[in-house]
Write a structure and sequence with these properties.
This protein has 312 residues and is mostly helical. The protein contains 17 helices and no strands.
């Protein structure tokens, strides 16, 4: 091999800024930022814009740090799964040691800076979120139980609570309900994805529900969790963060979500194979819009409240 070809190969494997940024799971981070922002803006009392900006920035950094530590620990799984094998570590762009160092450094920085910028209740919740996602979910639950995504979903549900605590310094019924909305949404959202991911999780040795108990049981669970989710979502309309806008949004979106879950529940494996999981893919896509519109409605209520138009 010539010096030129060796140099060319080295350049191909050299990490770029985009590779390091990908460690932070930017798509997941965007959901963290949005829900945390809604929690912050919906909280009573308000906060100075500079403090609000700092709070969201450090919550985002903390979320990204969790992603980097998750990729560090799960690099063996990521090499096997088609959905993840192009990530920075499996592709050889970033080493496991680099990912660990970045994740740990950003975690400490995010927690300390959030505490200094807002309060230590918010910082404590952020620290617990990182710990829960990396240790409880990634290192333990993910490879141990088919209920991994149910319990582990709590990690993604904390951001609105952190945003709320950044303003109020505490926890309330409203922030707990925002947490519960995301917590109950995560299983049907993720299980719908699993239904059309073929053998990825089985090949990686991850005991997802459809691998351990079959697709029929997974469809049953999707329906049950969707029904509970609908009750939580509509019930939140009658709290201080709700109002007519949110109530209408919740009723329409949950009616559609439940109908989608029923459609999946009625399906057979043969029907899924025949149309390449068309119904499941549509349900998964709708689930992304579902969460965005619910939190968007909470944000709209908060934005209109100063003018006497939001809330009840």
């Amino acid at each position: 091999m010539s010096d030129a070809s060796i140099h060319s190969q080295a350049q191909e494997n050299e990490a770029s800024f985009g590779d390091y940024f990908a460690l932070l799971k930017p798509r997941v981070m965007s959901l963290v930022v949005f829900t945390a922002l809604v929690g912050l803006l919906a909280a009573p009392g308000g906060v100075h814009p500079v403090i609000a900006f700092c709070a969201i920035l450090f919550i985002a950094v903390g979320g990204g740090a969790s992603g980097a530590l998750n990729m560090w620990y799960d690099s063996d799984i990521d090499q096997v799964m088609s959905r993840t094998k192009s990530r920075p570590i499996p592709s050889g762009k970033v080493t496991r040691e680099e990912a660990f160092a970045i994740g740990l450094t950003l975690s400490v920085m995010a927690v300390v800076m959030l505490g200094l910028a807002t309060n230590w209740v918010a910082a404590g919740l952020l620290a617990f979120t990182i710990f829960f996602y990396v240790v409880i979910y990634t290192m333990w639950l993910k490879r141990w139980t088919p209920q991994n995504i149910v319990i582990g979903g709590a990690a993604g549900a904390f951001p609105p609570m952190i945003g709320w605590a950044a303003v109020t310094g505490g926890i309330s019924v409203e922030s707990v309900l925002m947490f519960t909305l995301i917590f109950m949404w995560t299983p049907p959202h993720f299980w719908a994805l699993c239904l059309f991911m073929k053998s990825d999780y089985k090949d990686a040795g991850v005991p997802m529900l459809h691998v351990t108990h079959g697709r029929a049981v997974t469809r049953n669970h999707i329906l049950v969790y969707t029904l509970i989710l609908a009750a939580v979502a509509v019930g939140m309309a009658f709290t201080s963060v709700g109002g007519l806008i949110y109530l209408v949004t919740a009723i329409v979106m949950n009616a559609m979500f439940v109908l989608g879950a029923i459609s999946i529940w009625r399906r057979s494996d043969e029907a899924c194979a025949a149309d390449n999981h068309k119904v499941e893919k549509r349900f998964f896509g709708f689930s992304l819009m579902y969460l965005f519109l619910h939190f968007g409605a909470i944000l709209a209520e908060a934005a209109l409240a100063p003018y006497g138009l939001g809330g009840w």
